[in-house]
Design a protein that fits this description.
single chain; tt1808, chain A; 3 helices; 12 strands
């Protein structure tokens, strides 16, 4: 069985599991490295951070570029399907007919860290997104004092595409991604008792 066959089987299985996952408060699974990745649906506090980010970014986007929320981004040739929290993408004519976004039309992905699953955003997705050709990846981390990391500039490291640059921020800083600015000053933090 080839990697392509394995991915097709995982993709079919994902469709079956996804409907069941929704009934139990979980997200549709993602696919990476030949495995399904299950996650809980984000809590309101997680989505509130996303809402604040969306309100900031949307007015800055030029015509023909839109921001989408929790939308599949898929590169079947790599066997990767991710569902980022926020995606800045070209608005193309075929977008209304696609099941998943083409990563080559993505300008920026933003992931908001969940309290109990930080390694997925900080390790696995930092590896997957440059492989998919996503030029800018920002991680917003509402835990503790609040922080963010911006990754950009894809090069080859150890034979694999990887981000060349990484810049760390604290809440209160402004993150610049090309022409766009993300002010972290008023982004909510998770309180000590929150679950995710």
């Amino acid at each position: 069985m080839t990697e392509t066959d394995i991915y097709r089987h995982l993709r079919d299985y994902r469709d079956v599991l996804g409907a069941q996952a929704e009934q139990h408060g979980a997200r549709w699974p993602e696919i990476s490295d030949g495995r399904l990745i299950m996650m809980m649906s984000p809590r309101a506090r997680h989505q509130f951070v996303g809402h604040r980010l969306r309100k900031q970014l949307e007015p800055q986007l030029p015509d023909g570029v839109i921001l989408m929320v929790e939308t599949d981004v898929e590169d079947a040739s790599l066997g990767i399907l991710r569902t980022p929290d926020l995606v800045v993408v070209d608005e193309t004519a075929d977008l209304a007919h696609r099941e998943a976004l083409d990563p080559r039309s993505v300008h920026l992905i933003i992931e908001i860290v969940s309290r109990w699953n930080a390694s997925n955003d900080y390790r696995e997705k930092v590896a997957d997104y440059p492989r998919m050709g996503v030029p800018h990846y920002v991680i917003v981390d509402p835990r503790d004092q609040g922080s963010a990391v911006r990754h950009w500039g894809i090069s080859t490291q150890s034979g694999q595409p990887a981000y060349e640059n990484e810049e760390h921020y604290r809440y209160g800083d402004t993150i610049t991604v090309g022409e766009w600015k993300i002010d972290t000053t008023d982004l909510p933090r998770y309180d000590a008792g929150s679950e995710r």
